[in-house]
Write a structure and sequence with these properties.
This protein is α/β, with parallel strands linked by helices. A five-stranded parallel beta sheet has the order 5-4-3-9-8. The protein has a three-stranded mixed beta sheet with strand order 1-10-2, covered by helices on one side. The protein is built from eleven helices and ten strands. 32% of the residues lie in helices and 13% in strands. The chain has one domain: TIM Barrel, CATH 3.20.20. The protein is globular and about 45 Å long. Strand 6, helix 8 and strand 7 form a beta-alpha-beta unit. Bound molecules: zinc ion. Zinc ion binds next to loops.
């Protein structure tokens, strides 16, 4: 059952009740709390359905407000394709064309700043039947802002995207996956559920399409949420060519003290997340953008996975098919 649908009759708020009292058994509940080491195996392929450790099960009511979606718990070959950082006509349109040719619907985590610049592209995302979700106003790491400013920017961005899309927005992916516990709770109070990912192509690096494709295919797994990008702009932290954004390099999981929550660094892999110095020097000062064809990457990924039996629901569609795998995830505010 979809936790969002379950809540919608009474409240917009995905509060603690979204997890409390569930059995934690795959197939029998709306969500399952998983360890980071399970959800964050971004470049590994098939993985077994994890049992919820007893400590996590006990801690679930306490942890619930701060959990994020990472995947779905299923053995069925289903995978949600997600795209961040757009819309940008130069790169989003080829992705939309590749999806349309294959009759696949994806989830787009858009930046409000980009939406204001390219409202027509967002409207095409909507008319093509894709799910519109929020990535923020711009690509500022929210944990670097005062709390009130951070949550204000999320609210403002959501209002802009809803206005242009003429659709409710219920899913949010913070830039770099960066959030504090306080932000996580406040974001939920806005009616937004935080979605991270469980697989990626590392498509913020400038590598040959085939290399990115092989990586994405190798990372695909049943119930996965695949992180992709339909744009390289809006990325004020983008520092140019190279392997910026090493997994966990910019990430300080705050969950280590929680029982069984795991301490592996995980999310945080997004352009610039690792703070690596690239070609451009100051963030945004020089944009040496990836040159591969994002449409070709999307097309190749769908074609190959389809030949292996995969189907591609949206993030919300995935939650209708299988229990949502949630994990505890924070990035502490920098000192
Ligand atoms: Zn991003």
């Amino acid at each position: 059952m979809n936790p969002l649908a379950r809540r919608s009759h009474s409240s917009d708020r995905p509060g603690p009740s979204g997890l409390a009292g569930r059995s934690g058994r795959p197939g029998r509940s709306g969500s399952v709390l998983v360890r980071q080491r399970y959800a964050c195996a971004y470049e590994e392929g098939p993985r077994p359905i994890p049992p919820t450790p007893p400590a996590l099960r006990l801690a679930r009511p306490v942890l619930a407000p701060a959990t994020v979606r990472a995947c779905a718990i299923t053995q069925e070959p289903v995978l949600a394709l997600t795209y961040d950082d757009g819309p940008d006509p130069a790169t989003t349109i080829p992705v939309l064309d590749a999806l349309a040719r294959r009759h696949v619907r994806a989830t787009f985590f858009v930046l409000a700043e980009q939406v204001l610049a390219h409202p027509g592209v967002l409207r095409r995302i909507v008319t093509d039947g894709h799910e519109v979700a929020l990535h923020g106003f711009d690509h500022t790491r929210l944990t670097t802002l005062p709390f009130a400013q951070a949550i204000g920017s999320i609210r403002r961005a959501r209002d802009i995207v809803e206005e242009v899309a003429q659709h409710r927005v219920r899913l949010f992916r913070p830039a770099y996956g960066a959030q504090t516990p306080q932000l996580a709770v406040a974001t939920r109070a806005l009616g937004l559920d935080v979605v991270l990912w469980s697989a990626w192509a590392r498509d913020w690096t400038d590598e040959p399409t085939q290399v990115l494709l092989d990586r994405a295919i190798g990372a695909a797994h049943p119930g996965g949420i695949m992180l992709l990008h339909d744009a390289s702009v809006g990325v004020s932290g983008y520092r140019g060519r190279g392997a910026v954004g090493e997994p966990g390099a910019g990430a300080l999981p705050g969950a280590g003290a929680l029982p069984g929550a795991g301490v592996e660094p995980g999310a945080g892999g997004e352009p610039g997340a690792g703070g690596a110095t690239g070609v451009g020097g100051e963030p945004g000062a020089s944009r040496v953008l990836p040159t591969f064809d994002r449409g070709a990457l999307t097309g190749g990924l769908i074609d190959e996975l389809r030949s292996r039996g995969y189907r591609f629901p949206t993030v919300s569609g995935l939650a209708q098919l299988a229990p949502v795998g949630r994990m505890v995830w924070f990035e502490r505010a920098p000192a």
